[in-house]
Amino acid sequence: MASTARKKSTPKAVDSPFKNFTPYKPKKNEPYMSEAQMEHFREILQKWRQELMEEVDRTVHHMRDEAANFPDPADRATQEEEFSIELRTRDRERKLIKKIDQTIDRIDQEDFGYCDTCGIEIGLRRLEARPTATQCIDCKSLDEIKEKQLHGPLHAGSLLAATASYLDARSRGDSWLLRIDDLDHFRIIEGAESAILRSLEAHGLQWDGPVLRQSERIPAYEAALAQLGEDDRLFYCNCSRKALRELPIYPGTCRSQRRPREDCALRVRVDDAEIAFTDLIVGPQQERLGEAVGDFIVRRRDGLIAYQLATAVDDGEASISRVIRGGDLLDNTARQIFLMEALQLTVPSYGHLATLVYPDGAKLSKQSHAPGLDDASASANLADTLRRLGLNPPAGLSGAEPAELLSWATGVFDLSALSAVDVIYRH
């Protein structure tokens, strides 16, 4: 699901267990995932694991001490609630420790740093931000979109992004558009879209105009590919994961393959493109695509249109003025602007707001078992969301209907006041 505003006519990280390290600086011509780079990530993971283990031990001792205090009956419920929260946090940390152990095993087997889905390099900076990552940002973004689309109800993270986008549009007097990202038709589950739309309506987030579906825009994406091909920007790539393993970035091996070939992905050449833009929340951003991501995929090996191209074509419509979305999508923006400029589309303004994360830093998502929202508690859900956006509804609005809460919030909303620092989710 994506939302945008229609014209009338580098986020900061939360305190991270693996923040105390020096970013790795590759030497000239150093191969990707060299022995030194592998050791760099092994050290990060081991330190992270040690800190998690110490935190688990501290919690166990704390709970034992508190349990021995025999609180008054009036305090018992509070203590049990605190214990429940701590146990859930510790359970997530134990799962994270297991994932860290699996990642260290992959380093030992020299099977680390490459996307499990498409085989390309994940990249040093993404791995330093997410050391246990097993997918490149493209595949991860696509999977998260599928999770939101295919598995029913919205969760608190989805509602945070949707509400911020909605309030930004309404406070400016713009229309708020809704798009369903449903390109992977093989995995569409009947009823999932309806569940999402019902949840948005229950929370008062009424969109303008018809729902836009990417599955209905294939001709537009194919036309964009044809234009890029005519401009000599595309090539067919059949590079395997093994072939790319020792390289710091995609070297253009297949750039001469301009004729259609079977079992190939379609990549776009970025050459020495440099993209600069000012994010409405995060501030100035600049990226050299050739150094950061290299030639990237615009049509997957299985024939499906890649997320970057579809999103660039959709958001590049002349009627779109602003795109407000989660900070986890900031890394995609330079590539999408590159494609818009190559296709001579209108580049909207972007704003990337804080991501909702668990206390351990894991993003709230279906993959992290984020609980779905109860539409029957829409007013409470929305009030929590507004507080996470820095808006505190007055006492007189306690228990108010979603429409009344949104009307108040629209009058006081200021996008420039939003923080890019991740928000801790406490249920």
From TrEMBL:
Domain Glutamyl/glutaminyl-tRNA synthetase class Ib catalytic: 152-247, 255-369
InterPro entries linked to this entry: DksA_N (IPR048489), DksA_RNA_pol-bd (IPR012784), DnaK_N (IPR037187), Glu-Q_tRNA(Asp)_Synthase (IPR022380), Glu/Gln-tRNA-synth_Ib_cat-dom (IPR020058), GluQ/Sye (IPR049940), Rossmann-like_a/b/a_fold (IPR014729), Znf_DskA_TraR (IPR000962)
Alphabetical keyword list: Aminoacyl-tRNA synthetase, ATP-binding, Cytoplasm, Ligase, Metal-binding, Nucleotide-binding, Protein biosynthesis, Zinc, Zinc-finger
Superkingdom field: Eukaryota
Domain DnaK suppressor protein DksA N-terminal, residue spans: 37-107
Comp. bias (Basic residues): 1-10
Keyword Transcription regulation: no
Domain Zinc finger DksA/TraR C4-type intervals: 111-141
Region (Disordered): 1-32
Entries under Pfam families matching the protein: DksA_N, tRNA-synt_1c, zf-dskA_traR
Keyword Transmembrane helix annotated: no
Family statement: Belongs to the class-I aminoacyl-tRNA synthetase family.
Protein name: Glutamyl-Q tRNA(Asp) synthetase (Glu-Q-RSs)
UniProt organism field: Durusdinium trenchii
Phylogenetic classification of the source organism: Eukaryota, Sar, Alveolata, Dinophyceae, Suessiales
